[in-house]
Design goal:
Helix content is 66%, strand content 9%. The chain is of the alpha+beta class and 385 residues long. Helix 5 runs parallel beside helix 7. The protein is elongated, with a radius of gyration of 32 Å.
């Protein structure tokens, strides 16, 4: 097995990076679980110490209270700072969690210099099960924690007790390393399988929702999404625009169908850039539309497009947006294709509009007026009072 594979639990670096989101989510969840458990343990120790139960040392009451407070504060930090589990943030939470545990177990060991440490060994094994990073980082973390523990042990304890701690560290570190690799390799296998399933679901979502040529929403998905928005009460300013390429048949006849497809692709990309929407993560785009209230485009078929415009205040802002799109299309220079002309029909959505088909019909009538007026221009159709 290659060293790189061992470092990534039997997988290459690229495969592990594909599972980053799953790894971060799991590590953050385990930080939360371990911190809650740590808080409960300290609260129980406070109770046992207060009532002198199970021979818990009452002199350590302040230590238990201090770490109970630390774990409570850390829980709040995990909920806020770790709300977006990026790799950097999760790494910070994991490191802080490990430092808290190690400091606690070392302090308990120091306060009991007459006996070999046991809590440190238990926590070392638990942490080896809990977090997944890389083998090199894990070994570095274990070495750092054990180095600090043994330094304190040999400085505070009698040599015979310190040597017992050293013996235990050797045994438990060996166990922790073996268990860490075996357990995290199994977890990586689960992550890889889950990632493949997620990828399949994403591909199915993209194929069922997006036009392959332009990457815009297909007709069915656009109308489903728009209908969902209009069926709910809405008081924001919304407009729907139909865009149809002018003389598209001539492009196909004179320049070939390949150039015709290129013109359609350029038109789709121009619409996306004009709206300023990010459609790279297509599998979350529809959720983003509903949550963030952004504009979205679709391809109806052939050389006809439709745009659901949001985030504008009035007709003037919509007109400016569409004029910029039209100018971009007119300035296209690709081979023998010198400019793309298009007619645009627009209608504004009123508070009473609940049926996307009715709004579409108005936009279609506006598009017809744009064609009849000479093409390559914008026309609005008002809703009937």
């Amino acid at each position: 097995m290659r060293a790189q594979s061992i470092n990534h639990y039997g997988y290459d670096k690229e495969t592990k990076e594909e599972c980053t989101e799953l790894i971060n989510g799991t590590n953050r969840k385990h930080v939360m679980i371990l911190n809650i458990w740590f808080f409960i343990v300290n609260v129980l120790c406070i109770i046992f110490s207060a009532f002198d139960i199970f021979s818990v040392n009452q002199s350590e009451m302040r230590l238990y209270i201090a770490y109970a407070v630390v774990s409570a504060v850390f829980f709040v930090v995990c909920k806020t700072y770790g709300a977006k589990p990026t790799t950097g943030r999760v790494t910070v939470l994991v490191v802080v969690n490990m430092l808290i545990w190690m400091a606690y177990s070392i302090q308990i060991s120091i306060d009991q210099p007459y006996m070999a440490a046991t809590l440190f060994m238990v926590m070392l094994v638990v942490l080896s099960f809990s977090f997944i990073s890389t083998m090199l980082r894990t070994l570095a973390g274990i070495a750092l924690c054990c180095g600090c523990f043994l330094y304190c042990s040999f400085k505070i304890k009698a040599i015979s007790i310190a040597e017992q701690d050293l013996y235990n560290v050797i045994i438990f570190v060996s166990l922790s390393i073996v268990l860490h690799f075996a357990f995290q390799r199994t977890r990586m296998q689960q992550f890889v399988t889950m990632q493949k399933n997620i990828q399949i679901q994403r591909e199915l979502e993209i194929k069922s929702s997006f036009d392959a040529l332009t990457s815009l929403l297909n007709r069915g998905r656009f109308f489903s999404l728009a209908g969902n928005i209009l069926s709910n009460p809405h008081d924001e300013y919304i407009a729907i625009c139909l865009l149809d390429l002018d003389e598209f048949k001539q492009i196909n006849d004179k320049l070939g169908h390949q150039m015709g497809d290129k013109a359609i692709q350029i038109a789709g990309q121009t619409i996306i850039e004009g709206l300023g929407v990010d459609m790279t993560k297509k599998w979350t785009f529809q959720e983003k539309v509903l949550k963030e209230g952004i504009s979205f485009p679709g391809r109806l078929g052939g050389d006809e497009f439709i745009v659901f415009i949001r985030g504008k205040k009035n007709r003037e802002e919509v007109t400016e947006l569409l004029q910029n799109m039209l100018r971009s299309l007119n300035s296209v220079e690709v081979g023998d294709l010198h400019g793309i002309h298009a007619s645009l029909g627009v209608t504004e959505i009123t508070e009473n509009d609940r049926d996307i088909d009715v709004a579409y019909k108005r936009a279609d009538e506006a598009l017809y007026e744009s064609k009849r007026a000479g093409k390559n221009q914008i026309r609005f159709m008002d809703a009937e009072e």
